[in-house]
Amino acid sequence: MNKKYVYLLSLAHLSNDITGGALPAILPFFVAAYGLDYSAAAGLIFASSFLASVIQPAFGWLADKKSRSWYMSLGILMSGVFLGLSGLFQNYWVIFALITISGIGSAIFHPEATRMVNKVSGTKRGTALSIFSVGGNGGFAVGPVVAVAVITAFGIKGITVFGFIAIVMAFILMWLVPKMKNEIVRAEVSEKAAMHLSEHKEPVHDNDWNAFAHLTLVIVCSSIVSCGLRSFIPLYWVDVLGLSAAAAGSALTLLFSLGVVMTLIGGLMADRFGYLKIVRMSYVLLAPIVGLLSLTTNHVTAYILMIPMGLAMFSPFSSVVVLGQSYLSRNIGFASGVTMGLSVSIGGIMVPLIGKFADSYGLVATMQLLTSIAVVAALASFFLPNPDDK
């Protein structure tokens, strides 16, 4: 595993996903400033996801055809700059359009970045992907802190800071990625020469589309739960627990800070105990934790529940990506685009429907709905085959 490049890609992941972390924390401020209801607020989460769900697998397919490393810089630029611009307008549909473009940028980044991580991971795919994922979860953890801080200091216009973060990281990638690609090419030439001398070739299995379809069901259910929690925890903290918008942002920061640690631990455990075990254990744990959150109105208990929730939500992330790449070993870019894309985007697409449910039945019932979907994810995980058995 080439650690320096794994860490670089992880930092890029943080710079890209910091916008996704910031958006839910910005929602209570949008609600207060513009008088939005739950459905309208959830519509902005939908805006960041609905096109991304199609674009991310498409860019993964393109990455399989030919590497285009500049996609990473372009994606980060679009993700940060257009979210920043949304703070300069008050019209809902202008904000909606800008956040949509921001979401497209995030979708462009992920497949190529994940494919590059696979190239530099060596034999430690779970560990490398977990480090990469730590960057993304770090972005989701830092995003709410930055958003609340700049909005408190400068008003909603303060979120333009995300554009400056994106510009800096995009230029860093444009400078360093060509060097990384040259090292990857040299390593591949050396590996091919060594394999030729030993007359040993690593087998490439046929794509297992049936297994990948089962994995996709797991991803869809878990994405709805994770995105629902990410979107409605801030509102739950304000409207059910009676806390401030700043406290709501701190709940997301706590959850995603724990996610940084849990993602890394999950990757290390997956390399040792197996990817399927981590996936199944995590989703079996997630459902009762979300259920317990729906039963409490005590803010101390709610904060404590963020700890096991972080473990259940984030520890299987790298395992899911590795499983997808194993099931579609001939189309790693496409597999990465689907697994990483659906894990965020499909949940975002469903959030407006969940928002309408929340408007009709309340946030407590919404948490109970997410609990039932988490149960489906847990059950579906037991239908996944072990890729090592092929």
UniProtKB/TrEMBL annotation:
| Pfam family, any one | MFS_1
InterPro entries, sorted? MFS, MFS_dom, MFS_trans_sf
Residues folding into a coiled coil are: none
Residues annotated as domain Major facilitator superfamily (MFS) profile = 5-389
**Where exactly are the transmembrane stretches of this chain?**
40-62, 69-86, 92-109, 129-153, 159-177, 211-233, 245-266, 278-296, 334-355, 361-384
What Gene3D superfamilies is this protein classified in? Answer: MFS general substrate transporter like domains
GO MF annotation, one: transmembrane transporter activity
Which PROSITE patterns does the record associate with it? MFS
Keywords assigned: Membrane, Transmembrane, Transmembrane helix
Q: Name one GO cellular component term.
A: plasma membrane
What protein does this entry describe? Fosmidomycin resistance protein
Tell me the organism. bioreactor metagenome
Gene this chain is encoded by: fsr_5
